[in-house]
Write a structure and sequence with these properties.
With about 230 residues, the chain is mainly beta. The chain has two domains: about 70 residues, SH3 Domains (SH3 type barrels, Roll); about 100 residues, Immunoglobulin-like (Sandwich), CATH 2.60.40. It contains one helix and 15 strands, in the order H-E-E-E-E-E-E-E-E-E-E-E-E-E-E-E. The strands form four sheets. Strands 6-5-4-1-7 form a five-stranded antiparallel beta sheet, with no helix packed on it. The protein has a five-stranded mixed beta sheet with strand order 9-15-14-11-12, with no helix packed on it. Strands 8-10-13 form a three-stranded antiparallel beta sheet, with no helix packed on it. Strand 2 and strand 3 form a beta hairpin.
Amino acid sequence: MKRRILLTGFISILLAACAATPTPTATPTITLISTPIPTWTSTVAPVKVDLRVTDKLINCRFGPGVVYELINELHEGQFARVAGRNETFTWWYIRDPGNPNGFCWVSANVTETQGEVAQLPVVKAPVVTVIKANLRAEPSRIVVNCDQFPQTIFLEAEVTMNGPGFVTWRWEASTGVSSENVILVFEESGKQVINDYYQIGAPNDYWIKLHILTPNEIIEQVNIPVSCPP
């Protein structure tokens, strides 16, 4: 009798536990809402500065100084938009009126400005480069008797820079001969001439190269056919 009561109690406990178990609920569906990231637009207007030429004729140069290459000329009364300045407010970096996509520098002494020049960005001086190198040999062709060697070839190279700087150069010949590196000093933009000579000892087709090594690399070559008819 006692065993039956215990069994009955155990069954009652199991039924109570089943009744207490919560009914499973459905997993909620999560909906992702994409919120666009706001785009921030600057409300600061770009500085607007114009200038007017006050001299009869002024130069617009590659850099902020008279030592730089002349790019264009502006006439009295002509206007231009200023895009920047140097640190001392003595040169303006402007849009070149003669080249809509170009820029150049004019002196503040020969212009007057309209606008907040103090807000103009400081523009660094440009990197100076060799813009042209021409090489010429004289004579450019040799025809002599075979007993008239050696023959001398005179070389002339013209090197043009757009500002002050140093040019490193050397010669190289098809015979394998090469000169040492030489430094050419430019105190301002312009052209300098290099003169040298080379001796030919036998008939052949020769070439001589001028290597501009710094501030940028340029190679110029001349070909010199040399012959001695029998």
